[in-house]
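Re: export button greyed out
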Amino acid sequence: MPASSPRLLRGAINGQRLLAEVASNAAGANVLFLGTTRGVTDGVATQALEYEAHEPMAVAALETLRNEAMERFGLLGCRIEHRLGVVAVGEASVAIATSAAHRREAFAAAEWLMEKIKANVPIWKCELGPDGGRGWVHPDAMPGGFP
Amino acid sequence: MTIHPPAATPPPLSPTHQLRVKLFAGLAAAASTRLLELPWGGGTAAELKAAVAAAVPAAAALVSSSGVAVGNQYIAPDATIPPEADVALIPPVSGG
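Workaround output, generated via the alternate export path:
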């Protein structure tokens, strides 16, 4: 698997390393997006989030999205990482680093990738409450539909 | 001299053949297992979803909104699932 391939990992995300990996002298814009665990959602406290995935399908879907983003936005580099397991409040659960000649493409690619990840990639989050409660989050329908 | 009889023809699969279905997230929580075994004589993805919903009534609504994957590829509702397939039920996702 190429070093640039997306990864699912159980340890902390190192955003600075991802930025360094997409850097190049041809780039004039380098964007790092970190999605972090929010402590309160709609007035309800969250202790942490727990993530799981259908790992082979999730990695394949992320790789497809990365390749499409590289082409669609003319990126010079792109790295994607998503955590599995428990992610405490304030920690990053997902990271996207993009580099491009100009900022518009780098920003647009990071946002497009996040939308696609949330819509299509088989990863799920479970809300862990301060009282020990657990609840898996599922939209009423597959956000991006099934192919 | 040893006489080797021809290999016996395997018997047809009985309706009680067990299909193993991988479950995730809320589906696994509702079923209290990540690997649901179902009697399976063959059928479509839609029929598999009906069988899982019958086996785990608490997850019926979530099963209804789930996709079916065989060998890590989504299949259409009318696609046939062979008895030895590597099957997963994919509920609506919530990553990120």
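Chain A is about 30% helix and 35% strand. The button fix ships in the next patch.
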